[in-house]
Structures are given as structure tokens and as C-alpha cells.
């Protein structure tokens, strides 16, 4: 493992523990040369998921893209980055349990909305507006009315 600070090739593990969801091992490492510490995560390399987009094209599932999309809808809300990361992790777990490695983008959008709806209604409406391609204020109004009825 290369040290991210000095590039030296030798590090030692100072501490090791499972992450909360038990899907990775968090390791604190220390560079033998410069003595600085850093964190690495070790996880099982999973099967690559494929996303089938609305137009029929396919692309590899990208956790960072999912995070960015959710984070965008959560801007200026009370949601913290840790909460967004938790949503991303929960969606990924559900996708990995899906019956196929080819997942329609619609399925991903519905899962995200399901989780956001429980946590933050404003983020939910923002995400839904992009996902469902709201055309005008009436679309927003309709979605908000659905939320208020519940």
C-alpha cells in the first residue's frame, strides 16, 4: 500500500475494524517512512451491475454518480453527508439483491425516492422532479399534495 502523503511503499496496519454494515473492513495505517496515518477500506469486489437507461443504452452502475444525484437534491436541506451516504448504501444493497445484474434506471430512481421520502420530504420532491421530469408547477403541486395527504 502506497502512502498517500509521501508515496513510500511500506505501511503497517495500526487498527482494523468492521464497518457498521459489515460489508467492509476499515483499516488505520501508518507509513513506515513519514509516520503519517491514513484510512483504507477493504471490501469484497462485487459483480458489476449494469444500468439500463430509458433509451435502452447500458452503462456500469456508478455509486459516485448516484451519490452526486442524491446530494444535489439534498442541497440546502438538513440532510448531512453521512445520511446521504447511508441512503446510497441502502440503495446499493437493495440493487445487489435484485434478481438480475441488469437494472432498469427506473428501479434505481424508485428506490432512491422511497428512501428520501422517509427521511426528507424536500429532498424527495427535488429528486422526484428530475426523475419524473416535472414540466411545470402543476407537477410539483400534485406531488406535494400527495405528500400532504399522507
Instruction: Identify the overall geometry.
Output: elongated
Radius of gyration: 20 Å
Tell me the helix content: 40-55%
- As residue ranges, the low-confidence spans are none
**Strands across the major sheet, in which order?**
1-2-3
Structural class: alpha+beta
**How far apart lie the N and C ends?**
52 Å
InterPro entries: ATP-cone_dom, NrdR-like_N, RNR_NrdR-like
GO molecular function, one term: DNA binding
Function: Negatively regulates transcription of bacterial ribonucleotide reductase nrd genes and operons by binding to NrdR-boxes.
Keywords: ATP-binding, DNA-binding, Metal-binding, Nucleotide-binding, Repressor, Transcription, Transcription regulation, Zinc, Zinc-finger
Word description of this protein:
Its cofactor is Zn(2+). Keywords: ATP-binding, DNA-binding, Metal-binding, Nucleotide-binding, Repressor, Transcription, Transcription regulation, Zinc, Zinc-finger. Negatively regulates transcription of bacterial ribonucleotide reductase nrd genes and operons by binding to NrdR-boxes. A zinc finger (unnamed) spans 3-34. The chain has 150 residues and is an alpha+beta fold. It has 2 domains: 11-43; 60-149, no CATH class. Helix content is 45%, strand content 21%. It has helices spanning 63-74, 81-96, 105-119, 121-131, 137-149, and strands spanning 11-18, 24-31, 37-43, 50-52, 58-60, 102-104. Strands 1-2-3 form a 3-stranded antiparallel beta sheet, with no helix packed on it. The chain has a 3-stranded mixed beta sheet with strand order 5-4-6. Helix 1 (63-74) crosses helix 2, helix 2 crosses helix 3 and helix 4 crosses helix 5 (137-149). The longest helix has 16 residues, at 81-96. The termini are far apart.
Amino acid at each position: 500500500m502506497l502512502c498517500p502523503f509521501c508515496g513510500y511503499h511500506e505501511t503497517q496496519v495500526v487498527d482494523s475494524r468492521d464497518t457498521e454494515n459489515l460489508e467492509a473492513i476499515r483499516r488505520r495505517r501508518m507509513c513506515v517512512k513519514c509516520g503519517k496515518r491514513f484510512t483504507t477500506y477493504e471490501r469484497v469486489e462485487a459483480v458489476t451491475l449494469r444500468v439500463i437507461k430509458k433509451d435502452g443504452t447500458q452503462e456500469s452502475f456508478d455509486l459516485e454518480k448516484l451519490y452526486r444525484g442524491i446530494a444535489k437534491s439534498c442541497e440546502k436541506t438538513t440532510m448531512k453527508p453521512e445520511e446521504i451516504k447511508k441512503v446510497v448504501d441502502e440503495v446499493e444493497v437493495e440493487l445487489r439483491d435484485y434478481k438480475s445484474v441488469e437494472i432498469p434506471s427506473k428501479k434505481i430512481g424508485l428506490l432512491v425516492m422511497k428512501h428520501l421520502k422517509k427521511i426528507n420530504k424536500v429532498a424527495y420532491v427535488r429528486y422526484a422532479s428530475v426523475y419524473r421530469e416535472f414540466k411545470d408547477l402543476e407537477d410539483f403541486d400534485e406531488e406535494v399534495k400527495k405528500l400532504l395527504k399522507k
